[in-house]
Amino acid sequence: MSTLALAVRDSSTMLRRNLLHARRYPSLTLNLLLTPIMLLLLFVYIFGDVMSAGIGGDRSDYIAYLVPGLLLMTIGSTTIGTAVSVSNDMSEGIIARFRTMAIHRGSVLIGHVVGSVLQSIASVVLVGAVAVAIGFRSTDATVLEWFAAFGLLVLFALALTWIAVGMGLISPNAEAASNNALPMILLPLLSSAFVPVEGMPGWFRPIAEYQPFTPAIETLRGLLLGTEIGHNGWIALAWCLALVVLGYFWSAAKFNSDPK
Fold it and tell me: Where are the alpha helices (DSSP H) in 134-212?
C-alpha cells in the first residue's frame, strides 16, 4: 500500500473514532452549542429593540445583522470541544499506544481536524435553522454567494480547528484546554458581531476591526445580505490561511516532539 493510501485509510479510521466519541458523549458539544443559541435569543428578544435602534432599523434588521456573527461564533464554540478532546487523548495514554502501532503518524491529528470541521458545519446548520425560525432571511444572496459563504465557513472552521488542536496539545488536562481555547468565544464578543465597529471607542476600533472574526463576519454578512464587503474578503482569507499554516506547523511540531 502506498504512503498516500495508508494515510487516507488511517485518517478515515481516526475520523470514525472521533465521530463515535462525539456521538457517545454529546454533552460537551451541546453545552458549547447552547452558547450561540442563547446569545441569539437573548439579543433578539431581550435587547432586540434597543440594538436595532442603534443600527437604524427594526428587529428584523437586527436579526439579519446578528446572524452572520453568531454563525462564526458557533464555529469558535465547537472548536473548544476539539481542544478538550485532543488534550484527553494526550493525557490518557491512547496516543502512546497509537505510536506503537503501524499507523500513519499524522492520521491522529487529521482525524481530529476533519471530525471537528464536520461538527462545526453541523452546528452552524442547527444555529442557522434556529435563526430562520425566528425570522432570519437571506433573499438577496445568489447561488454563487451561497457557495462562497459555505466555503468561508468551512475554511474558517479549518483555521480555528488547527489552532484548537495546538491548544489541546499544550494543555496538561481537559480543564486547561478549555481555558486555553476560551478566546474562541471571547473574540467574537469583541468584534462586529453584535454592534458595528463604527460605534466602538476610537482607541478600540483597530483591535476589533483587524482581529480574525470581524473581517470574516463582514464578508459573510456581505455574501448573505448583499452589504459592502470591501477589503474584508481578502483580510478574512489571509487570516484563515495564516491560521491554518500556523496551527498545522504548531500542532505537528508539538505532536512529534511530545514524548507521551
Answer: 143-169, 174-180, 183-189, 205-210
Task: For residues 1 and 76, give the distance between their C-alpha atoms in angstroms, rounded to a whole number.
Answer: 37
Q: Tens digits of per-residue pLDDT, 29-69?
A: 677 778 888 988 998 888 877 787 777 777 888 899 999 99
- Dist. CA 228–CA 96, nearest whole Å: 50
- CB atoms inside a 10 Å sphere around CB 160: 30
Over residues 150-194, the pLDDT tens digits come to: 999 999 999 999 999 999 989 988 889 989 988 888 899 899 888
Q: CA-based Rg of the chain, rounded to a whole angstrom?
A: 19
For residues 151 and 3, what is the distance between their CA atoms, to the nearest angstrom? Answer: 29
Residue 259 has pLDDT above 60, yes or no: no
Distance of CA 93 to the CA centre of its chain: 27
Q: Which three cell numbers stand for residue 170?
A: 499544550
Give the sign of the dihedral formed by CA 18, CA 86, CA 93, CA 23.
Answer: negative
Q: What is d(CA 125, CA 200) in angstroms, rounded to the nearest whole number?
A: 30
**Whole-number Å distance between alpha carbons of 22 and 188:** 25
pTM: 0.89
- 107-133 and 59-92 helices cross at what angle (nearest 10)? 160
CA 238 to chain centre: 16
